[in-house]
Amino acid sequence: xxxxxxxxxxxxxxxxxxxxxxxxxxxxxxxxxxxxxxxxxxxxxxxxxxxxxxxxxxxxxxxxxxxxxxxxxxxxxxxxxxxxxxxxxxxxxxxxxxxxxxxxxxxxxxxxxxxxxxxxxxxxxxxxxxxxxxxxxxxxxxxxxxxxxxxxxxxxxxxxxxxxxxxxxxxxxxxxxxxxxxxxxxxxxxxxxxxxxxxxxxxxxxxxxxxxxxxxxxxxxxxxxxxxxxxxxxxxxxxxxxxxxxxxxxxxxxxxxxxxxxxxxxxxxxxxxxxxxxxxxxxxxxxxxxxxxxxxxxxxxxxxxxxxxxxxxxxxxxxxxxxxxxxxxxxxxxxxxxxxxx
Length: 342
Hints:
Belongs to the pirin family. 4% of the residues lie in helices and 41% in strands. A hairpin with a 2-residue loop joins strand 16 (237-240) and strand 17. By secondary structure, it is mainly beta. The protein folds into 2 domains: 1-15 and 162-280, Jelly Rolls (Sandwich), CATH 2.60.120.10; 22-161, Jelly Rolls (Sandwich), CATH 2.60.120. It is globular and about 60 Å long. The chain has one helix at residues 293-306, and strands at residues 6-11, 22-32, 70-76, 79-87, 89-94, 99-103, 107-111, 116-121, 131-141, 152-156, 163-167, 173-180, 205-211, 216-219, 227-234, 237-240, 243-246, 249-253, 259-263, 268-275, 283-285, 288-290, 327-329, 335-336.
């Protein structure tokens, strides 16, 4: 008897469970109200545990923000963050002097390497209408030889992120968005140079799928060494590899076999994470990732001593001017906007 396509199904928690080489995945989907003068919520914050508000009250959280929702300055080292901003905006500022505002389908891919401090704030730029904000943040590990590389970030503006709508035999549509790993003729922009994803043998794939009711699409086979998880985060029910899966679950499936997805009776959305394991020991303490506990201790000492470059901003939670559009300023001072792609 052949091995089943679906190997394990887990309920999605906070964060979602991941497999090597991924370390973490979280889905934020906040229905923020109109913004006030400071780009925070134009609503009462009474009753929220400001500085640590994950309550979801009224459909949104402040997270670690006190005026503007988001995550004020905090360190990372030894891995990468991939932030897929599906709706709303994120204001980035970091210890190397880089900054950005991105959203509406943009992706920021940041290699923390030997260490960086950054903030990720969610400015509510609309004063007269709601500010829905939705994003994925995915943590991708780095192999030992790359954990001490310089920090680096790259913007994948939504204009450069390939997407395609395909139809099954009944004409039902599946929209694919391809952040990493080519599929069905779509080739995404290259990841940062020190990324595990920059190696062909890593077989990294990061895709989102939006499927009409009843639509069918097949995830193609990949390396037998890769881990593959399909997260079903919006919809009702579906079948994966012939097995029924309910919304709010992730399914580990064989990577070396085609896996059919048949959506249920309402529109469904999926995130696919795939990659060959790095296969090295992992030691983690919060946002510090290394191979040994001794390396974790050294990283914490380095952070206390150097601040991973210091903090060149006047606030722990800086936001950019309301009227500022999507942009990025890199460590070398180079500024880019999506308009530069024309």
